[in-house]
């Protein structure tokens, strides 16, 4: 595959004479066809990384991150050649007033603006089309059914301040036709018609309306008026799950009372226009008030208005007017009413039998001189001799079941108890056995007291007891108990402490069991409250008083006048909580000798930001804080060491006192007696673990170079290294260089026998410079004359040997680094031509292992075997 | 000594106004900065109130705290203030809008004292958790700039100077963190320190402790220049302050009296003992800075009283 590819590449490589034919032009007359590349298929698949994004004008849109990013320069973006170069700062302080808020358009480029222009159509589809003349909120506002009652001033202010709701299209058209908000729609009407409308809207009867038509002013009849506005029904949103028309919390009477309807009830739903005739379907079939003539009803009740006086929007329909002349039918049966005058719900009749009523009983007569005494009830309960009379505690309806058991009720009623199953084991025993048992029990009780329980003193390890003595004292609040605790601990410590301790005996009146319990408590306390050992303990401060806090009182809080003051939390506990200061300071403060004793000054390192915020230069600039931190750390470390030492000493002492076998153990049972120190933390129990890792020595640099260095470097190093025979290996003493001048200096070296050694550059430099004697320098000078060239960069000890050493005869002297590099390349080529094996053998020798070399250090010719070994090793590394 | 020009040494004792709007005790009352026309108070009822002490009118109530308000500090330009209390957060308020601009949590206990620094770029809070923390108001960093943990008990009071922070703690120490010197100077009093008020020259410090003593501390060497005693103060934080021109020392006590002492000879000013003007402990007294004759006192009986000199 790759071979084919290469062949193809070669075929298209125009440089080769054999491939010239492919691009040859055979056109003799006319214009040649465009070259093959131009006629490329535009729809051809191009891999993603080859695709280019171009805008509509064919300009490149995306550039590399380092060539300008998204759109570089002013070709297609920012309008400056520099692209996103920062503009110079100009203060807008002077023209604050002129400053206006930036619009989004200010940040848009041509494309975005074009997009916007496109999207701005004549009629915005996204605009809210408010066909109903206002949003719901607006409607609610207009109807005055907003949140809470609004006074007039508020609503007027709101009208003035709030932005008006957007008019619907219809409203706008109407406005253009001369309609004003607040007016009804339709032709202007006369005064009489207006009055009729008013009457109609206020549900007056037509007769009243006709009376009211009489004009107040003569002038009034001379004008026409805009018709009254039709009131918009405002529907409240239904948010509950109750049935339609159900008012929560209303009683049966209330719910039926207010719904005395005048007209037919139209069934809930939509689709019935104001002047449409209500069909049978539309009329609520559950409405029984309608009677027989429920048909031909209008949703809009306009029955008594004269037809000509009635302004309508649509075409007139005189035929319906007559339909309303018919009087509204009422139910034929006489209206039944309740005794309080309310009408009976249609479809229902008044029951002759009475529904059960709440019977009210008169209060029982309280005997004179009776006082409520709830304790009496408890007493009777406690004695339980006679059940409380039923009259005294009438069982409450509903929960009497829970309070009275069958037996209780039975005993209340005076029943003889049923023979129940025996409850106790003793019930199964025969009467004789029971008697015998009773006799035995009485004999035991009466005969002799139980044998005294032996005092068992729980033992606590001396070490723990010792520690607990020093540690937290749990019974500070009870000094007597604390004293007993201390003496117990002392007795457990053993030694002279135990002798000094008062032997612990039961308190007078304390039983042995109680004493045992007490001792067990002490032992537990000692185990729990032994101090956190050693280094940990120093990090905690034990409080002076622990059990001195306020005692919790059981039960509800009883407020008292004295405790009602609510101070800012500086309770009396503060004084007790105060930690004891070191004596001199405390004594001075107590004596009122405020001054040097109570005044302390120490260094403090404020945060840099704090200094900045306070506008103060940092008092400890450049790392004083760090210094202090280091100091503190050091202190801490030493403290830690001290602690560990102390701990160890303590442990030893404790172990000794407890006559432990292992003198070096830390009390935790480490078996091997090896002392743990910080250096072997984490190594587990294996001492030798990781030792080889720690003692591992990094192999000499030459090995790495021999393996990993590139060809160029190799040759370079080779050049240096081959010149190195005179230079000392790192381990050789410098004197050797003086005593044994480099053998390669004067005589030409035999390639077969010569083995250079590798020396790290740094060492070489140092060593060579202080080791190379003056005469050597002179020699070099001489050689420099001879070679006429020496690289400025090459090292003193090698530059000449570049010419004179191994490469001397082969390579011409070079004057600068570049030339040298060229030379190296050539050299390497030559080397490769010469053949790898030979080259390797001749050139590369591993630096000897120091111990092995030292005796033969000055002997360069002895190197070969070492070299062979070294090479092997290098391969092994691979 | 501070008071070179001795002003009138009388303590204002004529009741001018009683500001009673707080329910429960009033813990702190502070004069506003500048002309000190207004006072701001915080109390157990979780509100901060702004008053005009001249007319006795309550101007505004700031409510956002969920617990009692224990300390208030007003910024130099009166546009903002910081308050703190039982809800373990420092609230920084905008005075005009009455809303909190920052709520800085971080303390482990209730914050007894809060102070803004001179240009209101930092707020320093001292808490029951025995730390003083410095919060940066210029950045939105939620971490404290610095935490001063030297105190071993609750911090009760703070004073923030131009280049220093002074804290008084229940462990009996007054600690001065000198930022300019990079030094911490601590003075031990042996009793919980409830208030620290420096003189204007910054040389001395008025320290009241719970052993019912108010001491004038020479800050240079920790000597006590004068001790003012006679009042009752064993349990509650009552702030002591200097009278006008630092000629006298005024402190409330737990019997509801307001005591006055001559600064130099430390004798109680007449009447001795002063009458009990509050029914409970006086939690805070503050002398109006530029007016010799006005003093406000707050008390646990829920009132703030404005006192004036007899005309």
What does it look like?
The complex is a heterodimer of chains A (about 900) and B (about 300). Chain A is an all-alpha fold and about 900 residues long. Chain A has a domain at about 460-530. Chain A has 33 helices and three strands. Chain A has helices spanning about 1-10, 110-120, 135-140, 150-160, 170-175, 190-200, 205-210, 250-255, 320-325, 375-385, 400-405, 405-415, 425-430, 430-445, 460-470, 480-495, 495-500, 510-530, 575, 585-590, 610-615, 625-655, 690-695, 700-710, 710-720, 735-740, 760-770, 775-785, 800-805, 815-835, 835-845, 850-855, 865-875, and strands at about 275-280, 295-300, 600-605. In chain A, helix 24 (about 700-710) packs across helix 33 (about 865-875). Chain A is flat, with a radius of gyration of 57 Å. Chain A starts with a helix and ends with a helix. About 25% of the residues of chain A have low confidence. By secondary structure, chain B is an all-beta fold. Chain B has a single domain (about 15-310), classed as YVTN repeat-like/Quinoprotein amine dehydrogenase (Methylamine Dehydrogenase, Chain H). Chain B is built from no helices and 27 strands. Chain B has strands spanning about 15-20, 25-30, 40-45, 45-50, 55-65, 70-75, 80-85, 90-95, 100-105, 110-115, 120-125, 130-135, 145-150, 155-160, 165-170, 175-180, 185-190, 195-200, 205-210, 215-220, 225-230, 240, 250, 260, 280-285, 295-300, 305-310. In chain B, the strands form seven sheets. Chain B has a four-stranded antiparallel β-sheet with strand order 1-27-26-25, with no helix packed on it. In chain B, strands 2-3-4-5 form a four-stranded antiparallel β-sheet, with no helix packed on it. A four-stranded antiparallel β-sheet of chain B has the order 6-7-8-9, with no helix packed on it. Residues about 1-5 of chain B have low confidence and may be disordered. Classes of the chains: A mainly alpha (about 900), B mainly beta (about 300). At the A-B interface, helix 19, helix 20, strand 3 and helix 21 of A face strand 17 of B.
